[in-house]
Amino acid sequence: MLEEEGFGKRTGKKRQSGYVVYPEFSFREEVLRDCTNENYEQYLTWQEALGEDEEYLTVSYRSLL
Questions:
Q1: pTM for this predicted structure
Q2: Of 7, 40, 42, 48, which has fewest CB within 10 angstroms of its CB?
Q3: 23, 44, 22: which is closest to 32 by C-alpha?
């Protein structure tokens, strides 16, 4: 649906959460800017601070309880 509507495309990577495996999705920059406003600028700052071989860490809400 997201690809069909022109929001972006799948990257080919997947991430598991519980019993569900979700595809990673790369959104078009124009779409993110329109939807997130100032939060997108913060995301770009974080992204640029990462090293070439680093990724954002993800965490399950259950591990926070």
A1: 0.49
A2: 48
A3: 44
> Pick from 47, 16, 49, 54: which is nearest to 32 by CA?
47
Backbone φ/ψ region at 51: left (φ over 0), alpha (ψ -120 to 50), beta: beta
- How do 20-27 and 8-17 pair as beta strands? antiparallel
Instruction: Kindly report, residue by residue over 4-42, the tens digit of the pLDDT.
Output: 988 889 989 998 888 999 988 888 888 877 777 777 777
- Contact between 56 and 50 (Cβ < 8 Å): yes
pLDDT reported for residue 53: 65
Q: What gap in Å lies between CA 22 and CA 10, rounded to an integer?
A: 10
Which residues does 14 contact at the CB level (< 8 Å), separation at least 6?
A: 21, 22, 23, 24
